[in-house]
Amino acid sequence: MAAAFELDLAVQDFVRAPFRKMLIDGEWVAAASGKTFDTVNPASGEVLAHVAEGDAEDIERAVRAARRAFDHDGWSTSKPGDRMRILLRLADLIDSNAHELAQLETLDNGKSINESLNVDIPSAANTFRYYAGWVDKAYGQTIPSDPEFFNFTLREPVGVCGQIIPWNFPLLMAAWKLGPALACGNTVVLKPAEQTPLTALRLGELLMEAGLPKGVVNIVPGYGPTAGGALVRHPLVDKIAFTGSTEVGKEIHRETAGTLKRVSLELGGKSPNIVFADANVEDAVQGALMGVFFNQGQVCCAGTRLFVEQKLHDEFAATLAKHAGGMQQGPGMDPATRVGPLVSKEQLDRVTSYLEIGKKEGAKAVAGGERNTGKGLEQGYFVKPTVFTGVKNDMRIAQEEIFGPVVSVIPFKDESDAVLQGNNTFYGLAAGVWTRDVSKAHRVARAIRAGTLWINCYNVFGASAPFGGYKQSGYGRELGSYSIDLYTQIKTVWMRL
Question: How far apart are the first and last CA of the chain?
């Protein structure tokens, strides 16, 4: 077990620095205020590292650097091949430093080292590699016109992009935003979540090593109301990309009205995962477990409303509860861990409060339902994998995003009832359907109002497949060719011949 927790020397050196600085204009600098904040290991509650605390003055410096890099230093007009080589070099550097990055991610976020090493880190590298391929393929068009004219379009970068990254997939979400932004010739000020800034800062070092010119990417850790708010309001920022809660997304939407900067929002979810009686039950149980307990349920598209056809409901809930109760919980650095701690004390308090709300509403916890304070876990932010039955779709635990390892099992009568209940939410990020009936699967996939629909699987992603929400789950699509639209604007040119 000692070997399982042994950290790479590079990781030890990274977290033992007096404090981690921010990246502005190609230099690692302290905050203008001199302030730092602590980032905490959620498995132990202990301080992991000290990080420079950026605020409005640091955002000002970073935006000015990004503006200059875009307007005057040539990044926006650089040769496509140059941008491509940098992104490919960055992807290779992520791969070659994968073990270090995975350990930093797990220490900072709490997630299983297996998830970090086998999902987050390689997916981040693949995202940069995918967008390297888009650098020379973001074409304009020629448009048929009067013969006296030549009419065509240019696809140009938006400009300075403010990118605000969540704490649940810190490195991967940075890659989702940085990849297309850089491929299209934009410059960036990136604010990582204050709970999990370490891999973003390490990524900044790799960007410099990959040959990115100074000022093209600036990384300013800090708190949302100060650093994040200053970035959103800054008049020299042309676009904001945000992944996080719906509440904060609405605030960003209001704040950007004054400057009319472009905005893309990937927000919360309360996704329906619908299991019909004709489904492969074993596969559906495993899919439901993956759908809600992956990354401790701290996933915006988690299938937290598990709708099961009435005649299968009791059997399915009992089997799910048995599996949930048997999932090993512990520090993420233990390779045997399947469910790690929540990211912070704040998140622990939020999730445990919803456990009590569910019980008061009349739901029954047939698995979990409480904080895990077992041996060695007392100081960490652990909540047992929880399965609630006796849930009605109008209960708070069925309507409000908990963002923890909590699933509500809800019965439905038939296909029409499944769609009706599934769509009865303010959210529309994702959904799942489990059935052997291909026609039924297609009907439900069309009827559910969500940006991603999984059939007989869950939580499957790819860099080429768009991801984003309906309704209050946000707007805009990340990944695939659709992300190119987020980071470019179209110019029409008329030339008299």
Answer: 76
**Rounded Cα–Cα distance for residues 124 and 328 (Å):** 27
Residues with Cβ within 8 Å of 200's Cβ and at least 6 positions away in sequence, in order, are 165, 170, 171, 174, 190, 192, 219, 221
pLDDT < 50 positions in the chain:
1-3
DSSP classification of residue 21 = P
- Bridge partners (DSSP) of residue 489 are 156
Q: How are strands ordered across the β-sheet holding 262-266?
A: 27-29, 22-24, 217-219, 187-191, 160-164, 239-243, 262-266, 474-475
At residue 6, the pLDDT reads 83
Residue with tokens 């890099």: 69
CATH number of 272-462: 3.40.309.10
Phi/psi zone of residue 340: left (φ > 0), alpha (ψ -120 to 50 degrees), beta? beta
* pLDDT attached to residue 150: 97
Task: Dihedral sign for Cα 343, 345, 351, 352, please.
Answer: positive
The CA-CA-CA angle for residues 219, 489, 496, to 5°, reads 145
CA distances (Å), origin 472, targets 232, 328, 427: 19, 34, 5
How many whole angstroms separate alpha carbon 481 and alpha carbon 160?
20
Positions annotated as catalytic residues are 266, 300
Q: In this predicted structure, what is the pLDDT of residue 5?
A: 72
177-229 tens-digit pLDDT: 999 999 999 999 999 999 999 999 999 999 999 999 999 999 999 999 999 99
C-alpha–C-alpha distance, residues 176 and 290, integer Å = 22
**pLDDT tens profile 76-135:** 999 999 999 999 999 999 999 999 999 999 999 999 999 999 999 999 999 999 999 999
Q: What is the pTM of this model?
A: 0.96
The predicted structure's pLDDT at residue 4: 52
Q: How far apart are CA 296 and CA 285, in angstroms?
A: 17
Q: Where are the domains of the chain?
A: 3-267+473-494, 272-462
CA distance linking residue 52 with residue 186, whole number of Å: 25
DSSP letter at 429 equals: S
| Partner residues linked to 27 by β-bridges | 24
- Cα separation, 398 vs 375, in Å, equals 32
pLDDT at 2: 39
What is residue 6's three-state secondary structure?
coil
Provide CATH code, domain 3-267+473-494. Answer: 3.40.605.10
